Amino acid sequence: MYLLSDYNIQDYGEARFSDLPKAQKGGFRSFRSMIPFDFLDKTAKDFDWNIYGDHNADVETGRELANAFVLNFHKWRQKGKGLYIYSSTKGTGKTYLSFCPANEVMNRYGVNVKFISVLDYLDLTKKSYNSMTDKEEKDSITKATVLILDDIGVEINREWINTTLYQMINYRYLNKLITIITSNYPVEQLKADDRFKSRIDEMCLPLHIPEISVRAMKTDKENREFIHEILKQKTP
């Protein structure tokens, strides 16, 4: 049994953690990444590309890019390159896919990873003017070695939002920090100014997810299984 212990982890600062061996192996990094708990252990092998069907060019390209991100991470890091994962269909697995390579590089190479949605980041930015804690959290997101920025969409057409996101993206570009972005839109369709879209093009390699809603397929399967279960039961 391990008691709460104070110790320092590079890029995260001082912390208290109840399981020191797990923390030393990267458990604390996972905890602080803000990746949803159910996805903290997901890696490339957990992402099922076969669900999109065979002989799909997007599948082959996506699989190769995701694997290369992990296996050749040092090259991506040298260039400050990330991924822009997009599809117009909701529920295709964009966010899920973003977690898988990020978890692997976090555990393999000991880098700090952060996950946040665009709307949550904008909300945090507003609050940071009044709270030192929120400001520190915002800084840790901006300066993370790998940042997953989820669901960039039409909300960036407002000037304040456009400028706020550009400042963060530009900082990461200048410092060669890796950004993984998910969106329902290809970069050229984002309602943002050209400097913003240009930075994303320079920072990220595009990865198009096939326009197949995995979420809808899963829901349909679960519903059919449930119907089968309740109909086969005899009424007492």
Q: Which regions are unreliable across 5 or more consecutive residues at pLDDT < 50?
A: 1-26
Biggest sheet overview: 5 strands, parallel
Give the DSSP E fraction (strand runs of 2 or more residues): 15-25%
Supply the number of helical segments.
10
Order of helices and strands: EEHHHHEHEHHEHEHEH
Strand count? 7
Rg, nearest Å: 20 Å
Mean pLDDT: 81
Helix content: 40-55%
Q: Measure the end-to-end span.
A: 49 Å
* Net shape: globular
Read across the widest sheet, the strand sequence of neighbours is: 4-5-6-3-7
**How does the helix and strand content classify structurally?**
alpha/beta
SSE diagram, text form:
Elements: E1 5-9, E2 13-17, H1 20-24, H2 27-32, H3 57-71, H4 73-79, E3 82-86, H5 94-109, E4 113-117, H6 118-127, H7 132-142, E5 146-152, H8 159-174, E6 178-183, H9 194-203, E7 204-208, H10 214-232
Parallel strand pairs: 3-6, 3-7, 4-5, 5-6
Antiparallel strand pairs: 1-2
Helix pairs in contact: 3-5, 6-7, 8-9
Explain what this protein looks like in three dimensions:
The chain is α/β, with parallel strands linked by helices and 236 residues long. Helix content is 49%, strand content 16%. It contains ten helices and seven strands. The chain has helices at residues 20-24, 27-32, 57-71, 73-79, 94-109, 118-127, 132-142, 159-174, 194-203, 214-232, and strands at 5-9, 13-17, 82-86, 113-117, 146-152, 178-183, 204-208. The strands form two sheets. The protein has a five-stranded parallel sheet, with helices on both faces. It has a two-stranded antiparallel ribbon with strand order 1-2. Strand 1 and strand 2 (13-17) form a beta hairpin. Helix 6 packs across helix 7 (132-142) and helix 8 (159-174) runs parallel beside helix 9. It is globular and about 60 Å long. The termini are far apart.
